[in-house]
Amino acid sequence: xxxxxxxxxxxxxxxxxxxxxxxxxxxxxxxxxxxxxxxxxxxxxxxxxxxxxxxxxxxxxxxxxxxxxxxxxxxxxxxxxx
Length: 82
Known about the structure:
InterPro entries: 4Fe4S_Fe-S-bd, 4Fe4S_Fe_S_CS, PSI_iron-sulfur_center, YfhL-like. By secondary structure, this protein is α+β, with helices and mostly antiparallel strands.
């Protein structure tokens, strides 16, 4: 599954630089995660780095974008192939 940022986000700016895929960016009101780029850090780290640094715990799994670990790894390979 891709991750998502909920409206509890306080715009603290700590998650964006932690994303190895560049999936996190500022939205109109809060930061957002591009599900096409989010691999939950599969291929890079054992745990999603944005979740590790988020001080308000507002980055859950996105139920609208269910993916298996294998699918996330395939996405990682496509993203990093360039």
